[in-house]
Amino acid sequence: MTDARTYIQGPTRRPSGSPYLRPMETMVRLRNVRKEYGETAALAGVTLDIRPGEAVAVMGPSGSGKSTLLNMVAGLDRPTSGEVVVGGEEITAMGEAALARYRRRRIGMVFQFFNLLDDLPVLENVTLAAQLLGTPRRQALTRAMELLEELGIADRRNAYPVTLSGGERQRVGVARALMNRPALLLADEPTGALDTRSGDQVIDLLLDLNQIGQTLLIVTHDQRLAARCADRVVEVEDGRIATEAAR
């Protein structure tokens, strides 16, 4: 059986042609990032580094700025000031087209409410990310089936999302996020819509991914998820990092 690293991340030896893929000490770097909405500062000068292969959980009360922080790294929102660098690329300097390419090629995203397309079966939901990148359909299908096998849901490939359990839907979401072998996986409350058993399954999955080298940035209220998966927990309050603690 092929090593899980090949299914999830691709070959251990990465191509040397792209500066994004060269070894680096910092996968994510935020410097004095501020985001204002009118007179309200959702982020008030956040500085944070995440190393390749590290799992970081961002926690804090509702409205603390943790989701805004994730959106900055995802390139879904732009800071009012400050710098966001991911994989050696300053995404704050990118135009909209470049940001769209960045999201497709460099990161994978897992959402609280799955964000699956209800009118497409599982296999088509998973391949969509690769097809948007221009991957040939046969290659995308092969990759999707490998991921579904690895995540234990290949038997549900022709099922529609409405027929799946919450845990199964989140596994489909993870498979879709991993389709393009992202260097960085972002997860926004990945256990928030799940019961305890399904949440534990997703926690196990994220832990397994990190143990084979996947860099994770997780926004969560789930203490179990943070305790089991995170190398470091960052507490955000009022748009600032209040504390950082390594496990």
From TrEMBL:
Protein species of origin: Actinocorallia longicatena
SUPFAM superfamilies: P-loop containing nucleoside triphosphate hydrolases
Cited Pfam families: ABC_tran
Annotated InterPro entries: AAA+_ATPase, ABC_transporter-like_ATP-bd, ABC_transporter-like_CS, ABC_transpr_LolD-like, MacB-like_ATP-bd, P-loop_NTPase
Protein name: ABC transporter ATP-binding protein
Key words, A-Z: ATP-binding, Nucleotide-binding, Transport
Region (Disordered): 1-20
PANTHER family per the UniProt record, alphabetical: IMPORT ATP-BINDING PROTEIN (PTHR24220), TRANSPORTER, PUTATIVE-RELATED (PTHR24220:SF659)
